[in-house]
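Aim 2, interim progress: modelling of the zinc ion-bound target.
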Amino acid sequence: MGYVFMTSACVGCGQLFNYNPMRVPSIRVNGSREPVCQICVERANPIRLANGLEPIVPYADAYEACDEAELPAD
Ligand SMILES: [Zn+2]
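Predicted structure of the complex, ligand included:
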């Protein structure tokens, strides 16, 4: 049993960040899911609210390690 962090660049700001690949908020870019960092979520929420959209509420463990048992078998 182990734990997994994903690390990649945020699609919003380009900063590398760690996240749980099963929980991180993401947006679709050209058909693939791209992860969004916590800073960008916090930056986007006031804009979403101003535009009548629901705020993004990440899972509590979105930026924590993922139990490897939760990863899809592949
Ligand atoms: Zn970002």
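The chain has one helix and six strands. Residues 10, 12-13, 15, 37, 39-40 surround zinc ion (CB under 6 Å).
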